[in-house]
Write a structure and sequence with these properties.
Layout: E1 2-3, E2 14-16, E3 41-42, H1 63-66, H2 75-81, H3 85-90, H4 92-111, E4 120-123, E5 126-129, E6 132-135, E7 141-143, E8 148-152, H5 158-161, H6 169-188, H7 204-222, E9 235-237, H8 240-252, H9 255-261, H10 277-290
Parallel strand pairs: 2-4, 4-8
Antiparallel strand pairs: 1-9, 3-7, 5-6, 7-8
Helix pairs in contact: 4-6, 6-7, 6-8, 7-10, 8-10
Length: 305
């Protein structure tokens, strides 16, 4: 995954709260699997990949790697270090900034005035949200109460270290695009179709998650043509290997994979909230191959895969 070298990055879509932990208990379902209140959807216990697979953006000394709980980060430092697309190619934190900008530019162009931009909040350890207190165990999630995406950046390595995924910068982008898919669902009213706490292989919760995967795929389809403020695409290249890594990640965050490999070895379809590995791959692929959000109507689908 590569960015246009002379692109100007906008860090205004990121709130950096690292070091400003809330210090209270988790208000969501345990382990990042819960749906609470106004459909707080958590993408399990992972963020995108770490390491140096799948392209650049894994430079040693990344601000993401150096900041821990109890440390304070001046947001101006991020703005100062993430100025151009070349910075995004060289530094992982800048790649994340660029990915957020591209995702929001895509939905803004598609939905027009119906799209309201949402910030992504970086936090370390714990933080307060409109949906309650969140901890690193929550995983990345979208909170409809304050319409913000939250990420503890320590999880950018966990998809590889715990789940065995290949990782890479495009995997990070897939995770972010999934969460912004939930923001879109909130804006257009889809989230209101799902009752909090629904579980099961055909539940509204699963359909909501699979649609967010599909929406992530539609952004990925258009990512190299989505214009930034200059009128030129911010992302210059997404490779077949990038897409394969995203599909690998999708497979490792399916309910069946997690229950079998990180649980007691058995699966309980009645408890599914996100869909199986095969389903998550299928719906991301549907979005990616068609580039059409209208093909992402999982609520009308009789066969989820």
């Amino acid at each position: 995954m590569d960015f246009r070298d002379d692109a100007s990055l906008d860090t205004g879509n990121v709130q950096d709260r690292r070091g400003g932990g809330a210090g209270r208990g988790l208000a969501f379902g345990g382990g990042g699997l819960g749906i609470v209140g106004l459909i707080v959807v958590v993408l399990l216990n992972v963020l995108g990949g770490g390491g140096d697979g799948g392209g650049t953006n894994s430079a040693a000394g990344s601000a993401f790697d150096q900041v821990g709980a109890g440390q304070t980060v001046d947001g101006s430092e991020l703005a100062g270090s993430c100025r151009t697309g070349a910075d995004a190619d060289a530094k992982r934190e800048c790649a994340v900034v660029a990915e957020i900008e591209s995702i929001q530019d895509y939905w803004g162009g598609l939905l027009g005035s119906r799209y309201q931009p949402s910030d992504t909040v970086f936090f370390s350890g714990s933080t307060q949200t409109g949906c309650g207190a969140a901890s690193s165990g929550t995983g990345p999630f979208y909170c409809p109460a304050d319409q913000l995406v939250y990420i503890d950046l320590s999880f950018f390595d966990e998809l590889q270290s715990r789940f065995g995924a290949q990782g890479g910068s495009f995997v990070d982008a897939y995770v972010l695009a999934h969460e912004y898919g939930h923001h879109v669902q909130d804006l257009v009213g889809t989230s209101g179709q799902v009752q909090p706490g629904e579980t099961g292989p055909t539940s509204g919760s699963v359909r909501l998650e699979l649609q967010a995967d599909c929406y992530a795929g539609t952004w990925a389809n258009h990512a190299t043509t989505v214009p930034d403020d200059s009128g030129a695409p911010l992302i210059s290249d997404i490779t077949d290997d990038d897409v394969a890594r995203a599909l690998d990640a999708a497979a490792r965050i399916g309910d069946d994979f997690i229950q079998t490999n990180l649980g007691d070895g058995s699966t309980d379809p009645g408890s599914y909230t996100h869909g199986t590995s095969e389903q998550r791959q299928r719906w991301f692929s549907t979005g990616f191959s068609t580039g059409d959000p209208a093909q992402c109507d999982t609520f009308a689908a009789t066969d989820l895969g």
